[in-house]
Amino acid sequence: MRDYLSEIKSAGVKELPLLAHEIRERIIDTVSKNGGHLASNLGMVEATVALHRVFASPKDKLIFDVGHQAYAHKIITENERSVPFENLRKLGGTSGFTSPQESAHDIFFAGHSGTSISSAIGIAEANKLKGDDSYTIAIIGDGSFTNGMAYEALNNASAKGLKLIILVNDNEMSISQNVGGLAKYLSKIRVSRGYFRFKRGAKRIGFFPLLGKPFVKLFAWVKNKIRRALMGNTIFENLGLDYIGPVDGNNIKALINVLEEAKKRGGACVVHMKTQKGVGYLPSEREPSRYHGIGTFDIESGEAHKKMPQTFSSVAGEAVVGLAREDEKVCAITAAMADGTGLTPFANEFPERFYDVGIAEEHAVTFAGGLAKNGMKPIVALYSTFAQRSFDQALHDISLQNLPLTLLLDRCGVVEGDGYTHQGVFDYQLFSCVPNAKIYSPETYEELKNTISKSSSDGCLSVVRYPKGAEKTYTPAREMIYDGEHMLYYSSGIEAAKRVIVTYGRMAEVANEALKDLPSDTGIVKLVKIFPLDRSYLTGLLSGKELIYTLEEIYKNGCVGEKIASYLAGTQARVKIKAIDTFVPCGTLSELYEHLSLTPHDVVNEIISEKM
Q: By residue range, what is the domain housing residue 536?
């Protein structure tokens, strides 16, 4: 296996751009076959080469914020990893995010934004306490500065003696175009070219000792006066941090020089680099948002191999647009995920009622609470894995205030490709402990539209959770009967069934497939509203059965099955709970279902093995 790390250390600086080109080609080739995050990684290639040239990973700790920008880092350190980069996002392969399980070069699991500076400060502080002279480098995108945690960390970053460098990757993007005051602020720094040209000239003059120390001191004083006149101190300097930049992050030589300068400063230092998202591959340069996260595609044309005319995300977006057309109080909010959550059509049709608050899930929910308090009807769309961050706000600023909010949770259940950090299997446990909340888990597009419509008039926190991708179409193994009052489907003949599978969402297809190989006295109850459950109704429906098998695509502790088991504790019915009891790795959906024993074959074997 090629040792890129040794080559970067030994090659001449003029040879490094060619090495970067080869790394970029491998990223494009692998992502075209496996899917993944493309544009963000292409913009980071030269910077990653420069980082490994200047610092000695893993002694010096490189901490990538979010982690989806670390593909070049994984290739460079590939010789010290158990699997090659070509296994990206495959079961047992390379994670699409940094993973300490893969390599000592990956310091932190990182799938959510804003965490790098906090963890870097902790590591740098521990180094100081131990007398370790290694460096800690937090690599954070400008988009992550829309997350409040980054500012909390900056407020504590100026402690004396920390060998800490914060490398701000400024590409004017998060997933979509950046929003908010910091984006404008960085732009202001970026265009203050006059000062930086003057600074470089002043530095050159300082190299002439014949001018004498008094002149150099005078020149430094003049330089600082001009700087403040042109742009003033940066926010970073006002927080007690050294600041260098902006520097061209796609210019390896320039960035090496700046990083070497940052090392000499001896304290916490911010290096501000400007990169181009998607650079080096024309389609991603033209449409960086589209190529932020992409499935497999043809390299020549840039066209995706698989196109879905409709997804749960797009149908949810259409449903929200429909509500907004009927009611001018409906507003839509997302956290840098307009495309991913299907809200772009809403943004185009109702721009005055659409709010992209940046990567700030906490703010999104409390902001929605303010809208609701003043008579609006807010709908917040987030990915399930990021909604974890908004729990406190949902509890304290929505439920406690008795305010209405529809929370659309995209990417619920098992999510293929992204691995441990992006699985939507914990949201039910979080939001089912919020007083007065309601949670829906539709299986079909029609159910999704119905539940979004219903949730908008619930008058409380209503969570609608749905998976990534398209609905499954199939013929149910039994005729299904709908109970509208309880938002419950169940198979006909359920009264006579001895065994009953209770399920919801995408697992309903698995249950129906299993039913083909199960005894005829087996039935299915499919829930649509999964919290709160109607205890008396379900107890009456299920208490006479010999076996209740709950099948769920969420984490086991605190799942629906546990609630049903508690309801039936005083009856003769036995409850077998099938859910997820571990963190979920990378892989395709079918691979992950097999890995987690969530296939129809597993269901059949487990039910038959239960003695009646």
A: 480-609
